[in-house]
Design a protein that fits this description.
With 390 residues, this protein is of the alpha/beta class. 35% of the residues lie in helices and 17% in strands. Helix 1 (33-47) crosses helix 3, helix 5 (131-139) packs across helix 6 and helix 9 crosses helix 10 (245-254). It binds adenosine-5'-diphosphate (ADP) and magnesium ion (MG).
């Protein structure tokens, strides 16, 4: 894997694609993990006396009214604080003002360029990887580093476009993600996949890819009720993805000994109903919604996980946003952590659940990629990776 360490960046103008797509509420950054995630690479470049030029997107820009709320200058004060130095900002994504700032930059200075998606307003130039834009941005620097794992599954001008024209490599954040995720290409066995979450339709390709590689697949979340329906079980008012019952039936037929379904569920009449009851899946009462896996299922899953050497987990096993229905996810995650089973979490919600449970730093790897991680688990080639490796 070609990383920033393999390129000569001494005193060079180093373009770095970072992921500063931070969550914002009422004009304030609510979580700065993405900024902190990029620090290692930025600091390394500063140490090498580089002139550091940062690109990132923030939100989506479809119309003029999207500009103000996605103004990337919001990141400057926090980044400056974390780096303990001044951070320059260019409010334009191209043109004289930007070029002047760069021409006047001294070694070790850091410049953040306005939201790359401001370029989407005029014909989606960033998101469609318009040739001219990638070439222009590349002309501003000497080398390119891609450290934005969250967009590595997209071919945009600010990643693939620039990479095409400059000596390029991965930053430390991307290196960390790829080195962990690629362990799944050759996992120590038994290799167990845990799959939960809301919809089967979001996960079809993940299931199809992982079912061939894993030794067992443990199903939970709302997804389990589509699988149970496929077995002819009446699941009450639980969430069922009707269009994919046939898909689940085929998976169960082809991989009968691999796929494991819940035995019981913790169900209630609604999310507000305070009287949740555990019931066997064979006997879910008609007016009940299964909201979490039940005690017997938790025990069964722990038993299967006991001897596992590698676990990959996507999607929570219940409605983890509620402190009642987070229980299945909590018990299984604690079990994995306490037994030091090599576990990789992939997907926005399962990582969010790990945060809520204060287990995020205790699991072997919590992938920050969201959609990018899912595409990795689907076994797809990711454009941002190919653009550096080729
Ligand atoms: P990830 O982001 O990890 O890929 P998903 O986005 O697929 O996960 O699913 C997360 C959502 O699934 C959560 O909002 C959670 O409430 C929901 N969910 C989990 N179990 C159930 C259930 N039994 N019924 C309804 N929703 C569920
Ligand atoms: Mg999600």
């Amino acid at each position: 894997m070609k990383t920033i360490k393999d390129l000569d960046i001494n005193s060079k103008k180093v373009l770095i694609r970072v992921d500063f797509n931070v969550p914002i509420k009422d004009g304030k950054i609510t979580d700065d993990s993405r900024i902190r995630g990029a620090l290692k690479t930025i600091k390394y470049a500063i140490d090498k006396n580089a002139k550091v030029i940062l690109f990132s997107h923030l939100g989506r820009v479809k119309e003029k009214s999207d500009l103000k709320k996605n103004d990337l200058s919001i990141v400057v004060p926090r980044l400056s604080e974390l780096l303990n130095q001044k951070v320059l900002f260019s409010s334009n994504t191209r043109g004289e003002q930007l070029e002047n700032i760069i021409n006047n930059m001294k070694e070790k200075e850091v410049l953040l360029i306005q939201n790359t998606r401001y370029e989407d307003l005029d014909g989606k130039k960033e998101s469609s990887n318009e040739e001219e834009l990638g070439a222009y941005w590349a002309s501003l620097g000497d080398v390119f580093i891609n450290d934005a794992f969250g967009t590595i599954h997209r071919a945009h001008a600010s990643n693939c476009g620039i990479a095409k024209h400059l000596p390029s490599a991965f930053g430390f954040l991307v290196e960390n993600e790829l080195s962990h995720l690629s362990e799944l290409d050759n996992p120590e066995r038994p290799y167990v996949v845990i799959l939960g979450g809301a919809k089967v339709s979001d996960k079809i390709e993940v299931i199809e890819n992982l079912v061939t590689k894993a030794d067992k697949i443990l199903i939970g979340g709302a997804m389990s009720f589509t699988f149970l329906s496929a077995c002819g079980i009446n699941v009450g008012k639980s969430l069922v993805d009707n269009e994919n019952i046939e898909f689940c039936r085929r998976m169960l037929k082809d991989y009968n000994e691999k796929i494991v379904l819940p035995i019981d569920t913790n169900a209630a009449k609604s999310l507000e109903d305070e009287n949740a009851i555990e019931m066997p899946v064979s006997n879910i009462l008609p007016e009940y919604i299964g909201l979490d896996i039940g005690t017997k299922t938790i025990e069964n899953y722990k038993e299967i996980l006991k001897n596992s050497k590698t676990v990959v987990w996507n999607g929570p096993l219940g409605v983890y946003e509620s402190n009642i229905y987070i229980r299945g996810t909590k018990e299984i995650m604690e079990y994995l952590v306490n037994n030091k089973i090599k576990t990789i979490l992939g997907g926005g919600d399962i990582v969010a659940a790990a945060s809520v449970l204060n287990l995020k730093d205790k699991v072997y790897h919590a992938s920050t990629g969201g959609g990018a991680t899912l595409e990795f688990l689907e076994g797809k080639e990711l454009p941002g990776i190919i653009s550096i490796e080729k």
